[in-house]
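Form 7-S
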Amino acid sequence: MTDVQWSIKGREFVHCNCAYGCPCQFNSLPTYGDCNAVACMIVEEGHHGATDLSGLRFGMIASWPGAIHEGNGEVVPIVDERATPEQREAILRIMSGEDTEPGTTLFSVFAATFKQVHDPVFANIEFDVDVNGRTAKLNVPGWIEARGEPVVNPVSGEKHRARINLPSGFEYDVCEVGRGWTETKGPIELSNSDTHAQFAKIHMTQSGVVHA
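Output:
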């Protein structure tokens, strides 16, 4: 870790292969034994040192052969093609956990579990997420096509709302739970349908998540 100060506020969408609710959020093993996911964030307000990150998007495709904490994972970092060289470096340093107190953000935690980090992708990230509405659309041409929707009550057909609150969590304070669909290409090929998705407002710094 360095002495660089950083902060990001924004919104995120994450879609993984677990059942709704995702056992990982409760320190349990993944639904099907392995774990994989796509994630994307939009920075509404942020900086890394003197480098402004506001308005940029970044994400990842990640996969682990077992539970995340067991390691041996791999990741493809994806950064907004609009980012300048300085902004690209700043985002990649945040994503790698290099400028973060150990174990205090998902970036730092995940970085410790990756056996292979693929070359970063700089691409057009088409991304829109409505946290309260539990909807999201994510398209990175040639890499990711994903969407998120609310969970639907199987009896009434009404939209079902559930939240997860992690007061000491390393990713968010509160997330809205939904469901999602994902297809990816490249070195990590995923195909997940009607599995756990989460939508959250995020606020992180080099010291961890800023909790309410």
